[in-house]
Amino acid sequence: MKKLCVLALLALAACGADGEPVQPTLNAYGGLGSSGGYVGGAVGLNKGPLGIYLGF
Fold it and tell me: What span is annotated as the signal peptide, if there is one (predicted)?
């Protein structure tokens, strides 16, 4: 549910109604190691030189 809310907020912010548009980003990764598998990623917003990211 939290991921859906974050994605909805990103989509709304991506509209960029005025000024420079806000650019949403999504990074995902995964792999296998000797201690098992792992998955992770981050979502974020960029506007000009500023960026805010949330890792999961």
Answer: 1-19
Residue found under tokens 């907020």: 9
* DSSP H or E stretch at residue 44: strand 36-47
Would you say the pTM of this structure is higher than 0.85? Answer: no
Q: Are 28 and 34 in contact (CB under 8 A)?
A: no
Q: Name the token pair of 47.
A: 């506007």
Please answer whether residues 7 and 55 qualify as being in contact, where contact means their C-beta atoms are separated by less than 8 angstroms: no
* Model confidence band, residue 1 (pLDDT cutoffs 50, 70, 90): low
